[in-house]
Design goal:
By secondary structure, the chain is mostly helical. It contains ten helices and no strands. The longest helix is centred in the N-terminal third of the chain and has 24 residues.
Amino acid sequence: MARAGLTAERVTIAGAELADEVGLDQVTMSQVAQRLGVKDASLYTHVRGLEDLRGRIALLAADEKTIRIAEATSGRAGKDALVAFADAWREYAHEHPGRYMATQTAIRIDPELAATAAGPRRAVDLTYGVLRGYELTEPDLTDAVRLLRSTFHGFVALEAAGGFAHERSPQQSWVRALDALHTLLEHWPPSREGNSA
C-alpha cells in the first residue's frame, strides 16, 4: 500500500531539495525516505529507483529554469533578451545547485515522462528565440546555441567550484562576457566548412 499523501511529485521535490543541499551525486533513496519520514521501500511505489528519481529531478529543474527564463525574456529582444536569459540561467544555478546539475548531467530519463515534459523542449525554443534577433541561420544557429550553453554552464560551474580567485569580481567578468557574446552574435564569422584547415 502506498503511504497516504506520498506521491511521485512529493518524492521528487524532496530529492530536489536534498540535491540542492548536499549535491546531486550525494542523494540516496534512504536520505529521501528519511526526509519524508517513511521507510525506503515506500518510495519504490512512486519512483523506480535512484536513476528514475534523478531523471524526475532533471525534468522538474528544466521546468523551473525555463519558466524563470521565459518570464525574464518576455517582451525583450537582442542584447536585452540575451542578458535576461543569461542572468536567469545563472541565478537559477546559484539558487538551486543540485537541481541545476541535474539539467547538465547525462541521466537516463523514462521515455514516457520525457515525452510529456515541457521543460526541455521549451528550453530549446527559448534559446533559439533569443538568437532569432541575431538573424542567424543553420548551421550557425545550432553552433550559437552550443556556444551560449557552453559559456553559461562553464561560467557557473567554475564559479560554483571557487574557480574565480582573482580580485576582479565574477559579476564584472560576467557582464563583460555577455557584452562579448552579444558582439560576436552580431558579427558572426562566415563558415569555414569546406575549407581545408
